[in-house]
Amino acid sequence: MTQQLIAPQSQPLVQPEEKLKPSWLNIFILGSFHLIALSAPWFFSWSALGVAVFFHWLTGSIGICLAYHRILTHHSLEVPKWLERILVTCGALALQGGPIFWAAGHNLHHAHTEDNDKDPHSAKRGFWWSHMGWLLYPQDKYFDYDQYKKYASRVDRDPYYRWLNKYFALLQVILGFGLLALGGWSWVIYGIFVRTVVLWHCTWCVNSATHFWGYKNFECEDGSLNLWWVGILAYGEGWHNNHHFNPRVAKAGQRWWEIDVTWWVIKVLQALGLAKKVVS
Length: 280
What we know:
Oligomer: single chain
Largest sheet: none
Number of strands: 0
């Protein structure tokens, strides 16, 4: 009598959860910037404060919101290539990573919003993680160039953007020496460290706060919300629910009270004939 062997049903493979390891380099860099920024009261001058405010706007609204976000990532408008590269260079000065890294991470955020395995800063992991924890415990799939570049292939085709992606920190050193020569250490402390730290948290609040508090204009499948104070501090990016409902639209603020400073810049560029194909 032969015995029939019945193979057990195959079970779906469960991928083990990636063990997160702290990046002591990132912790040191972010920690050092915060500590140096805290020394600002001992270096205060009105001119230094003015430098910080100016570079916060230049690198934040012009560099991150306009260039990195609305032009490179979402193609919400087009500007001449020479101008695009200038604007993107302003974004590199924000010290939020190179243009390929930034665009790839944001594309993943939109494609897999709040997915713990595919969204780099998923709010489902908690406020701390979405705010800055993802930077302190970096995962290779989001931080290794060979892995993330495919999510920003259009940006990666530009050789200058590839150079910026690798050497963006060098621009900060050049700017630092320029500020030191023009205004001394007070300009360096405020123009580099205070400005960078404040802008970091303004940007990070878009990842964190606007997924925890606020209101909705549109029904989305994710937890994106509009939060007025982030809308102001992040130059229009805080109207996050509006943006998630239709990411390609160039204007983030949709109601009259939803202030979008970056949109005002786009309107100026449009009036000058420098902004074309603005998605509305």
